[in-house]
Amino acid sequence: MELPSVMSTPVTGLVAALVVIGLTYLVHRWRNPKCNGVLPPGSMGFPLIGETLQLIASGYTLDLPPFIKKRVHKYGPIFRTSLVGRSIVVTADPEINSFIYNQEGRTVELWYLDSISKVFKQDGEVKTTAGGAIHKYLRSITLNHFGSESLKSKLLADIQRYVDKVFTQWSNHPSVEMQRGTLTMLYDFNAYIMFGYDPEKSNENISESLITLADGFMSFPVNVPGTKYNKCLKAQKRLVNTFKALVKERRQASVAAARGDFLDQALRDIENEQFLTEEFVSNLLFGVLFASGSISGSLTLMFKLLAENPSVVKELTAEHETFLKQRKDPKSPITWEEYKSMTFTLYVIYEVFRLSNAMPFLLRRTTKDVNIKGYTIPAGWTIMVANSALHLNPQTHKDPLDFNPWRWKDHDQYSISKTLQPFGGGTRQCAGADYTRVFMAIFLHTLVTKYSWKKVKGGEVSRSPILKFGDGIHVSFSAKA
Ligand code: HEM
């Protein structure tokens, strides 16, 4: 009866030793990934989860996310890590960032985390973020409807009418939570521009679903009922169905019903572009509409920054009241020439971009080994381009956490393009940049010329690493006499 246990002891010991050796080898491989050169310094964290938990830990200032700040301090402006199962190199070095922007289609390609790709259906033939002809098309259709020609001929007036209407509604409430308020405003208006959406006539509340989606898409990707990620995936399903139905309905509508909008153009182009299908078009509407909500974070933060800096509001108001005085009819709409001469307003907008960092980093995947500054980033790795580091670098911007629009006074356009890159760079640079500046300028014009306003509650900010506003920023508005 004793025999089995005498026999099993050395076997068990051997198995245990093999498991330990195997695990040690795997951990060693995890910590020292293969590379045909020198990897940037850094740590790959724990096997599988890497340093994901550290990435999403919140910082309670407008400064760089603590994850990046701590590591830049420890390793320098380029370091390696692992996040959600991916080997990643983070760069906060402006020279390397520009190099990476310009490598698009050569040694790197646009890439999203797997969980984000799932939300935006970025796979197979409906991948709207692909390169080549698809990328060219994405840019051209977006610029056609949101670019400078459209702004001058149509959108400038449309934005003014819409912003006026929204402020009138806001002033009828005791207060408005600005993040939700600006997101609803942006999604409703941009959906109107793109496909004639009218929230009062639609069965689906598109802005509400997009807000739920925006709230959950950067949360920890655990798909369990009740989690933000789960709610986000449910909202995504509703949106995909709504866009599909919309595309079908418009395709069946008569030519006379055409509005000449984004959706009409995409459906017309189906005849000429091989990659365009109804599913692709509905995915395109979804992606561009979601991207257009990026202005909300900057507008929301703007209220906090203006409320804390009355001298900025004073100079801003003076600039806009001068326009009113110079007009024959003070009630006439803003002209393109007036927009172009809003000097201080533009400094305020630059400063809000610099501090809001609506997209604190951009993601790329290497298609070949990338050699830069003595390091090698292996093929198949992800690169996180931390453009926000440029905006918060004390060597580039003195007292970087101060809201100081006057700092832009002595900069020419070239130096601004080198020190402020909220819209990224290279061929993937934001196609909504002009539209964003015009929208914010008109929003500010309406705010300071027509309304008195007060922050009544909230205003805490955090970064994890996306900018968040705690319980929000609540503002009350009343029309000026
Ligand atoms: C504050 C507002 C905004 C910010 C900070 C912002 C930022 C960015 C950034 C950084 C990129 C480059 C992404 C990358 O390289 O990975 C980008 C791309 C893009 N953005 Fe924006 N964006 C804003 C508003 C908008 C708006 C209002 C629209 C639509 C009207 C828009 C449409 C797009 C599109 C279509 C792209 C893809 C461009 C391409 O791949 O060539 N964005 N945006």
TrEMBL record:
Subcellular localization, as worded in the UniProt entry: Membrane
Gene3D superfamilies registered for this protein in UniProt: Cytochrome P450
Recorded topology in the membrane: Single-pass membrane protein
InterPro entries in UniProt: Cyt_P450, Cyt_P450_CS, Cyt_P450_E_grp-I, Cyt_P450_sf
GO biological process: brassinosteroid biosynthetic process; brassinosteroid homeostasis
Keyword ATP-binding appears in the UniProt entry: no
Domain of life, source organism: Eukaryota
Gene Ontology CC annotation, any one: membrane
PANTHER family according to UniProt: CYTOCHROME P450 26, CYTOCHROME P450 708A2
Family: Belongs to the cytochrome P450 family.
Annotated protein name in UniProt: Cytochrome P450
Taxonomic classification: Eukaryota, Viridiplantae, Streptophyta, Embryophyta, Tracheophyta
